[in-house]
């Protein structure tokens, strides 16, 4: 298993991170520090889950930014020796990205939008959110086009 805990040069990376000027530089630093942390980058949530997209837009409105991408990562761990990945995730969120664990969402097999995993779908359904009647790895619209 890959170690995503804070590296020995944590302070140096943090200083470099604070001096970055654009999202591409940020992504390069993240990939250089933790090459396998980012698993997938998706453009949006599946339209079958409008509340997820609405929540994202609301967070962006509050942080005075616009939605960018959904980033699926290997791990988010809230422990003292995982500060750096948490800082990366926090800054990305403030910049308009959604950062989620790879096991929580999957890309639609057709259109590559983010679909909640079965367990999250079941929880959303239980909480009476608008979700498809049955869970699928494909958006309802993409299923109809098959």
Describe the 3D structure.
This protein is an alpha+beta fold. It has one domain (10-144). It has six helices and five strands; from the N terminus they run ααβαβαβββαα. The chain has helices spanning 10-18, 23-33, 50-62, 83-94, 118-126, 140-144, and strands spanning 38-42, 70-73, 98-101, 105-107, 114-116. The longest helix has 13 residues, at 50-62. The N and C termini lie far apart (38 Å).
Helix count equals 6
The residue ranges in which pLDDT falls below 50 over 5 or more consecutive positions are none
Total count of strands: 5
Give the strand order, joined by hyphens, for the main sheet: 1-2-3
On the 0 to 100 scale, the average pLDDT is: 91
Summarize this entry quickly.
The chain is α+β, with helices and mostly antiparallel strands and 146 residues long. Helices cover 40% and strands 13% of the residues.
Question: Keywords for this structure?
Answer:
single chain; 146 residues; alpha+beta; two-stranded antiparallel sheet; 6 helices; 40% helix; elongated
């Amino acid at each position: 298993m890959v170690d995503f805990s804070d590296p020995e040069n944590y302070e140096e990376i943090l200083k470099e991170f604070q001096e970055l000027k654009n999202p591409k530089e940020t992504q390069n630093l993240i990939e250089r520090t933790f090459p396998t942390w980012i698993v997938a980058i998706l453009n949006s949530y599946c339209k079958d889950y409008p509340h997820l997209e609405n929540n994202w837009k609301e967070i962006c409105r509050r942080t005075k930014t616009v939605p960018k991408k959904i980033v699926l990562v290997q791990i988010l761990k809230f422990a003292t020796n995982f500060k750096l990945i948490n800082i990366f995730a926090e800054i990305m969120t403030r910049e308009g990205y959604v950062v989620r664990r790879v096991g929580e969402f999957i890309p639609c097999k057709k259109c590559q939008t983010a679909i909640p995993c079965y367990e999250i779908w079941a929880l959303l359904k239980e909480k009476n959110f608008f979700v498809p009647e049955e869970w699928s790895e494909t958006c309802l619209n993409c299923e109809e086009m098959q």
